[in-house]
């Protein structure tokens, strides 16, 4: 069952055994001002527009105000599952903040990813074809790192990072939920060992 989400709009979800952090993209892009900026590499540079967590008790979704708060919840989610009462003036009796549906694209994230070290920035970037997301860390000096080997080299070379551990960095990425892909997005489907492109259908066409 899903429990966490970044809204791409993306959102995230988690559970104790099999809980994933979920993200959702507003397919209509109405929640994002203007067009989503795209890089030449085929990445959608601005992926996440909001954060949400699902209550352990009532399973309702609660929007989280900031990336910092979201990372704090996610970093210890297995030990401390989220409940509605952790938000000020909110209880399980209140309506859900957001519904899981195909008006946004969702992606399942991993629980207990460590909080981004101070001075660094962790970025999730959605690929243009919605096939997956990529994770990057940007150092205080502006250097972008794409793998733990790069992080290890940087930590060894920067005396200001002597107190940081490699375990504080994690490149795990959320899994895009196929049932929430926008109708116009084509996805590769494996059939009898061969790959072919298949266009996602609207619900009314199923």
Please provide a written account of the structure.
With 206 residues, this protein is mostly beta strands. Helix content is 9%, strand content 29%. The chain is built from two helices and 13 strands, in the order ββββββαββββαβββ. Strands 1, 2, 3, 5, 6, 7 and 11 form a seven-stranded mixed beta sheet that branches. A four-stranded antiparallel beta sheet has the order 4-8-9-10. A two-stranded antiparallel ribbon has the order 12-13.
Report the major sheet. 7 strands, mixed
Q: Please give the share of residues in helix.
A: under 10%
- Give the uncertain stretches in residue-range form: 9-39, 188-206
Structural class: mainly beta
How does the overall form come out from the CA principal axes? globular
Compute the separation of the termini in Å: 24 Å
Helical stretch count?
Answer: 2
How do the helices and strands line up, and which of them pair or pack?
Blueprint: E1 4-7, E2 10-12, E3 21-26, E4 43-44, E5 50-54, E6 61-64, H1 67-75, E7 104-109, E8 121-127, E9 133-138, E10 144-145, H2 148-157, E11 175-176, E12 186-191, E13 194-199
Parallel strand pairs: 1-3
Antiparallel strand pairs: 1-2, 1-5, 3-7, 4-8, 5-6, 7-11, 8-9, 9-10, 12-13
């Amino acid at each position: 069952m899903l429990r966490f989400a970044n809204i791409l709009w993306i959102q995230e979800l988690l559970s104790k055994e099999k809980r994933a952090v979920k993200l959702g993209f507003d397919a209509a892009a109405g929640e994002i001002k203007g067009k989503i900026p795209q890089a030449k590499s085929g990445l959608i540079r601005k992926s996440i527009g909001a954060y949400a967590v699902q209550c352990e008790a009532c399973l309702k979704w609660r929007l989280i105000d900031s990336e910092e708060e979201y990372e704090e919840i996610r970093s210890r989610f297995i030990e401390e599952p989220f409940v509605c009462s952790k938000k000020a003036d909110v209880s399980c009796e209140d309506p859900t903040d957001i519904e899981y549906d195909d008006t946004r694209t969702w992606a399942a994230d991993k629980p207990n990813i460590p909080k981004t070290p101070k001075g660094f920035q962790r970025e999730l970037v959605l690929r243009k074809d919605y096939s997956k997301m990529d994770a990057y860390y940007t150092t205080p000096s502006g250097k972008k790192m794409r793998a733990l080997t790069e992080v290890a080299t940087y930590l060894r070379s920067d005396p200001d990072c002597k107190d940081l551990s490699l375990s504080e960095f994690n490149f795990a990425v959320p899994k895009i939920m196929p049932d929430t892909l926008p109708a116009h997005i084509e996805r590769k489907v494996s059939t009898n060992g061969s790959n072919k492109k298949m266009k996602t259908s609207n619900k009314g066409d199923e």
